[in-house]
Design brief:
Blueprint lengths: L10 E3 L6 E3 L11 H13 L4 E3 L8 H13 L5 E6 L7 H15 L4 E6 L8 H13 L3 E7 L3 H10 L5 E7 L11 H8 L2 E5 L11 H10 L3 H10 L4 E3 L6 H8 L8 H9 L3
Parallel strand pairs: 3-4, 4-5, 5-6, 6-7, 7-8, 8-9
Antiparallel strand pairs: 1-2
Length: 274
Amino acid sequence: MPKFPVDYSDRKPLGRTGETVSAVGMGTWGIKNEEGAFRALVRAVELGLDLVDTAEMYGGGRAEELVGRVLREVGRESVFVVTKLYPHRFRDPERAVRAAEASLRRLGASHADLVLIHWPDDLAPIRVQVRSLEAVAERGLARYVGVSNFDAGQLEEAVESAAKHELVVDQVKYSVLDRSAEGDLLPACLRLGVTLVAYSPLERGAVLRSKSVREVASRCGRTPVQVALNFLVSRPAVVAIPKSERVEHVEEIRGALGWRLRPEDLELLERSGP
């Protein structure tokens, strides 16, 4: 049997909010060709990949500006916008609010759907960071809040620290080649009602060279990219956010949805190394 129950939904629950997002969204880290990325992101939204993830640190704010262009092109209501703020912003509530306002100016939006602490700040207690994060939602700058790069213990403490706004997401590195998140974190997310958002799900193309991924792709008539993403979204409460700067790659990514790997293929991938 696979390690986790197979989730067949292409819409994933956002924490316990009752809202859903596409099981595969799009990331914006490390963009080199902005025009290509713009066209790719627009196409992704057209195909129903409605979650777009960015951060103030990506390109020194340029990625947020790019997402803002996408919002103007496709309509704000068509996109679930996620952005992440530097950890030091959350040492006090007013600093967090100012940083969120700056991100929203770059996005050209009145609010983000989800704002995350980009990684835990070693210089501030988690409860302080979470209360500052909640201030962003209290001001109406974010509909939901969450964290990124928090381990299971940090996540549990963060969830317990929240007073008025539940944490709905923990965004971490997770791929078919790096399953460390499955140890303590994914079980913690399932227990706490937190959605795990997987960044670097294609390992900068390394999944294309994985013998086991290629074998499964050949067996099921899919591409290695589609198999690698399908593996992740087969997990309950997991969303994957690959990045692309090419429309044809986005269309391949969309092909990761609408089906699921067979249990025996999931097991093979779980047993195999890169």
